[in-house]
């Protein structure tokens, strides 16, 4: 196996360039590279920084739980699964809510001292961490709280009637996603790579400046009959939903 620093450095760049967080990941790697070789013991040791870094990032990409400080640092794009109904050839089709952002400024704030507070009305206190939500599309400036356990199951809303539980999960491009049966949020890359930025060049941007962030879901939209909806003009009411929504079991 090749051990050239140049080879592994370029392999890292090619592997990371279209992943979420490329610029930050690359800048941190370059900084740590310089620190790595400031240690004289590293010189001539046969240890290759970029090779080690490559496998470290591959391992981190498999991580399924998020750290509190990491969650606190992210800003999310908030979208509903279900959008507005429209008429198509006498059929009622509910358009996908994924085609339009409801908010691009959702934050999950956390303070360590808040975790120790006992909250009335929360079932069996299933959570380990709690905080406040800002930027929610309901436009309320205060009062929205969130709760999360160590398995990254998360719930938010106004006490005592919170919205359905959801989960925090990794996306295929190493970003972070929060989803429950009503909505889905994805962390916005503050400095997307040029390749990621130009994901709309194929003409399929749907007037959506963040198409690259949502491409996998938008490209997999299917028209499926809505449960318990009455027929209109002899046709079932359908909704545009992505395959992952249809196949994914949501947290109870």
Describe the structure using short key phrases:
25% helix, 7 helices, 252 residues, 27% strand, eight-stranded antiparallel beta barrel
Could you tell me the radius of gyration in angstroms?
22 Å
Structural class: alpha+beta
Instruction: Indicate the mean pLDDT.
Output: 84
Summarize the main sheet. 8 strands, antiparallel, barrel
SSE topology string: HHHHEEEEEEEEEEEHHEEH
Strand order of the largest sheet: 1-4-5-6-7-9-10-11
Low-confidence stretches: 196-203
Total strands: the figure is: 13
Rough outline: globular
Report helical residue fraction. Answer: 10-25%
Number of helices: 7
Describe the structure.
The model is unreliable at about 195-205 (pLDDT under 50). The protein contains seven helices and 13 strands. The chain is an alpha+beta fold and about 250 residues long. An eight-stranded antiparallel barrel has the order 1-4-5-6-7-9-10-11. The protein is globular and about 75 Å long. Helices cover about 25% and strands about 25% of the residues.
Helices and strands, with pairings:
Blueprint: H1 5-16, H2 22-36, H3 49-60, H4 68-73, E1 76-80, E2 82-88, E3 91-96, E4 103-110, E5 129-134, E6 144-148, E7 153-158, E8 161-162, E9 166-170, E10 176-179, E11 183-187, H5 194-197, H6 211-218, E12 221-225, E13 238-242, H7 243-247
Parallel strand pairs: 3-13
Antiparallel strand pairs: 1-4, 1-11, 2-3, 4-5, 5-6, 6-7, 7-8, 7-9, 9-10, 10-11, 12-13
